[in-house]
């Protein structure tokens, strides 16, 4: 499902470019066949491998946000709904690799301004609201230029 969210963000790259926002995808594992399938098909920008999973630990306040596949996905109506939404986009999926780590999104300001926005995946397949992400980036641009 992360492929679908990444793809939706990357489709809006011209908006982020106009706001002066750089986009990065952070992967928690490096499976060569998966990276080759992901980039540039679903994400054409910078891809970073987080060997220590520090990005993911930061989302979880210092620990990885993990949930068992059965309880977190198969028995979770929200996660199943998220999966159906992603499948309707004709995005190909598989179950290769570590599938229990949850992700999210950070918007980090320039200089020492720190984290302007954080979204944590609570249910597998939750997406940061795109309108909200774009609005935060727009506000950051106004502050930077003002």
UniProtKB/TrEMBL annotation:
The keyword Isomerase does not apply. Keywords: Cytoplasm, Redox-active center. It is found in: Cytoplasm. One of its GO terms (cellular component) is cytoplasm. Pfam families: AhpC-TSA_2 (PF13911). InterPro entries: PXL2A/B/C. Belongs to the peroxiredoxin-like PRXL2 family. PRXL2A subfamily. This is Peroxiredoxin-like 2A.
